[in-house]
Write a structure and sequence with these properties.
Helix content is 37%, strand content 17%. The protein is α/β, with parallel strands linked by helices. It has a seven-stranded mixed β-sheet, with helices on both faces. The protein binds pyridoxal-5'-phosphate.
Length: 403
């Protein structure tokens, strides 16, 4: 079955479906090459990428400046482990310090690992600083959250499929409705260490909380000595039109969890951005990762952050997101239920299943993905232009009319 000469998409798909675990249901497009907002498949078809790897490639695919950092560093040293120091980690710390208003940082690889790190830090802070009795710490989360796929993280998911068959779960989590400050206030006990929340729930279908929610949450957390942990893994780094989404609300969280676009799609890099007061609870040996903070990832991340700053991708996202949203809202079609978004994080909700529209858009040269059956997320790289948005909207309208 392993053919020597793979030719068409079909050949690759056959092997992938035979040999790979089926934990995803991808579109049948086999990508070979990418540049900016465009990708090409093995059959030579060109598509606009309106998913941007779930916002990991905000900077656009294969950005030349990040490529240069990657290849340059790959020739120097790629991995030292944290048993030794390397000369790139301090530069990333400095860059994060300059861009985040936070003062201490911990580097991991995947988003889920960074969430695990924040959970561990919050618990240990709860015991050593807040005085919560041993093993009693609680962390409150929001319903319909998405924070990753590890065993502890799915322990506080409210999505049945993410949990079914994977118990027993990690205890110590409480769920409150998203967008409801009163429910949060009621759920807090003397044993509450933290509240973990996304500023906008992206996987849940681009759910934007009511005006003033985060500000209210910040006050409740401060009043009760509860840490506020913001998951900005998807909403961070310009995606919503600000460098971080919580800048809209002028809140100061205790921990910010980032990943995805932190490395512009080149390499998995995630981090917890916080303060010495909180990350100081970790003593040598408490926590770690072989690849966390490696020089290759750090060099890539510094370049990825520089691209966001130099190209003002947050401002672009605000401007072009508003333009895209306005144009999508202007499409008058009975199948559309709602179009909502902030910056270039846009949810396009239909009154019916969205998969047929996704497949039609693929035919017309646009790659996107349905989430929660009826919502399509339009989240192209932040370097997209007005003319390209016009091109996309024309096709979205055409696709709607032909399904
Ligand atoms: C993608 C994502 C994660 C998980 O990141 P991984 O790198 O896939 O582990 C966590 N939280 C949010 C909000 C995300 O979008």
């Amino acid at each position: 079955m392993l053919s020597e000469k793979l030719k068409s998409s079909k050949d690759y798909i056959e092997i992938e479906d035979h040999l790979g675990a089926h934990n995803y249901h991808p579109l049948d497009v086999v990508i070979r090459k990418a540049k900016g907002i465009w990708v090409w498949d093995v059959d030579g078809n060109k598509y606009m990428d309106c998913l941007a790897s779930y916002s990991a490639v905000n900077q656009g695919h294969c950005h030349p400046k990040i490529l240069k950092a990657l290849t340059g560093q790959a020739r120097q040293v790629t991995l030292t482990s944290r048993a030794f120091r390397n000369d790139k980690l301090p530069l990333l710390y400095q860059k994060l310090y300059e861009t985040s208003c936070m003062t201490q940082f911990l580097l991991m690889n995947s988003g889920a690992e960074a969430i695990e790190t924040a959970v561990k830090a919050a618990r240990k802070w709860g015991y050593t600083k807040k005085g919560i009795p041993d093993n009693q710490a609680e962390i409150i989360v929001a319903a319909n959250n998405f924070h990753g796929r590890t065993t502890t993280v799915i322990s506080f998911s409210t999505e049945a499929q993410y949990r079914d068959g994977f118990g027993p779960f990690t205890p110590g989590f409480k769920v409150v409705p998203f967008g409801d400050t009163e429910a949060l206030k009621k759920a807090i006990t003397p044993n509450t260490a933290a509240f973990l929340v996304e500023p906008i729930q992206a996987e849940a279908g681009i759910i934007i909380p009511p005006e003033g929610y985060l500000k209210g949450v910040e006050k409740i957390c401060k009043d009760n000595n509860v840490l506020l942990i913001l998951d900005e893994i998807q909403t961070g780094f310009g995606r919503t039109g600000r460098f971080f989404c919580h800048y809209y609300d002028s809140v100061v969280p205790d921990m910010i969890v980032v990943g995805k676009a932190l490395s512009g799609g080149y390499y998995p890099v995630s981090a917890v951005l916080s303060t010495p007061e909180i990350l100081g609870v970790f003593k040598p040996g408490d926590h770690g990762s072989t690849f966390g903070g490696n020089p290759l990832g750090c060099a890539v991340s510094v370049a990825a952050l520089n691209v966001i700053l130099e190209e003002k991708l947050d401002e672009r996202s605000a401007e072009l997101g508003a333009y895209f949203l306005e144009k999508l809202k202007a499409i008058n079609h009975p199948k559309i239920k709602e179009v909502r978004g902030r910056g270039l994080l846009i949810g396009f909700e239909l009154k019916e299943k969205a998969r047929p529209l996704v497949l039609k858009l693929q035919e017309l040269g646009i790659l996107c993905k349905d989430t929660h059956e009826t919502t399509i997320r339009f989240t192209p790289p932040l370097i997209i232009t007005r003319a390209e948005i016009d091109w996309a909207v024309e096709r979205i309208e055409k696709a709607l009319n032909s399904i």
